[in-house]
Write a structure and sequence with these properties.
- This protein has one domain (26-91): Ubiquitin-like (UB roll) (Roll), CATH 3.10.20.370.
- The chain has helices at residues 9-22, 73-76, 80-91, and strands at 34-40, 44-55, 58-70.
- By secondary structure, it is α+β, with helices and mostly antiparallel strands.
- A three-stranded antiparallel β-sheet has the order 1-2-3.
- The protein is built from three helices and three strands, in the order αβββαα.
- A hairpin with a 3-residue loop joins strand 1 (34-40) and strand 2 (44-55).
């Protein structure tokens, strides 16, 4: 099979490390603005909620949540502005 791969111990260890990293801090700070980034295309939409935090004298963005969704046929016929607004409403 041309698209097959071998899942070995290195793959398993990398996967477990990734899973662990995804559930570890950084945690939300009490200060720092939240930023909601959205985008919509002809067939889908996506959003990212981030929090800006200062760490060691630098401002960094910490991703809090992500979402993506495929648009149905009715939604795909909407204009770009309405698709972008739908992404905002869906995210909030």
């Amino acid at each position: 099979m041309p698209n097959s791969y071998i899942w070995d111990d290195n793959c398993e260890q990398a996967f477990l490390a990734l899973k662990k990293a995804l559930v570890q801090p950084p945690v939300l700070a009490t200060e720092g603005p939240f930023v909601l980034s959205i985008d919509a295309s002809d067939t889908g939409m996506g959003t990212v909620l981030e929090q800006k935090q200062e760490k060691k004298g630098r401002v960094v963005k910490t991703i809090i949540a992500c979402m993506s969704k495929t648009l149905n046929a009715s939604q795909q016929r909407c204009c770009t502005t309405n698709k972008e607004l739908l992404a905002v409403v869906t995210a909030v």
